[in-house]
């Protein structure tokens, strides 16, 4: 017999209470959370979530990089699980919701299914990934990155914090160095709920963000080299002023982004002037360029345009200009089936919604390399995160969790 689950809703108060209880571990005076990856506080947070998982009847698997998978059996346990998850580590001045919401929303989905005795054909899993924030140990999104093979377990183990402690030692010390080989764990579909970390939903007065993709980024160092000289005796036509040439390139970064709306982004955020003296014509200026967009094709066009503009400016001015690409992350389009499940669950529940492309990285990017994946965003106050004042409304968190519930049920199939 197939149960009808149309009217099924999660318990928003229970979700909120769980968030507030977890937020007490590492709570800061300003109302935020400081629970850095693989510290004693991280262990306490992990222990609490694992205890809640066990109490909800889930079995626990830990892999060698400390990713934790909590599993609710399906009626056909041979099927790959429909998974949801995120992270519970935070920034040094982190908030209560970033990551934690994605994990506890998954737990709330399982608790709701338990309350109503609902079985699913595919198993359901709630995961939390090690060191998503990358604050204590680099690289970011470490657990999901090792899981999908973006870098090796040895590379991750060797990462050191400022005191010289390694990921391998710290995982062992807190008791979360598991046995399972990372990635040796099939996933049928992956969902991640997260606060938006941007202002778009709040500005548009929407409750749910359907996330079709995560932006890619291209980072450059640009160095303009001229000649230092005295600001007084040197006539204007005999100068090789690196600052004035840099000042021609900088507005072009913004102009390029504006030529590729709505997701083109262009930022110059860092600048060094040599010798940085009031009465010396600058001999060298170095600055950063950050270009982003949602498709490889558009990001490549932006790359071609900045490259051509810099070449032309070098020819026009006769100064030496070096443009070096120092980082590239391709855009991550999410899977149409998973995005579709989020979209139809949102429509069924009647929440005001819009598409929001993520400008920040998430574990879902790495999960997407292995399984159909997608994300659900809810608004956060003033779009602020990575800050102790990070805030979100209980009703929005509840709505996002209801969307997660129905989207996961569509994939896992109620029996
Ligand atoms: Zn996060």
UniProtKB/TrEMBL annotation:
<feature type="domain" description="Peptidase M20 dimerisation">
    <location>
        <begin position="215"/>
        <end position="315"/>
    </location>
</feature>
<dbReference type="GO" id="GO:0016787">
    <property type="term" value="F:hydrolase activity"/>
</dbReference>
<dbReference type="InterPro" id="IPR010158">
    <property type="entry name" value="Amidase_Cbmase"/>
</dbReference>
<comment type="similarity">
    <text>Belongs to the peptidase M20 family.</text>
</comment>
<dbReference type="InterPro" id="IPR011650">
    <property type="entry name" value="Peptidase_M20_dimer"/>
</dbReference>
<protein>
    <submittedName>
        <fullName>Hydantoinase/carbamoylase family amidase</fullName>
        <ecNumber>3.5.-.-</ecNumber>
    </submittedName>
</protein>
<dbReference type="Pfam" id="PF07687">
    <property type="entry name" value="M20_dimer"/>
</dbReference>
<dbReference type="InterPro" id="IPR002933">
    <property type="entry name" value="Peptidase_M20"/>
</dbReference>
<dbReference type="Pfam" id="PF01546">
    <property type="entry name" value="Peptidase_M20"/>
</dbReference>
<dbReference type="InterPro" id="IPR036264">
    <property type="entry name" value="Bact_exopeptidase_dim_dom"/>
</dbReference>
<keyword id="KW-0378">Hydrolase</keyword>
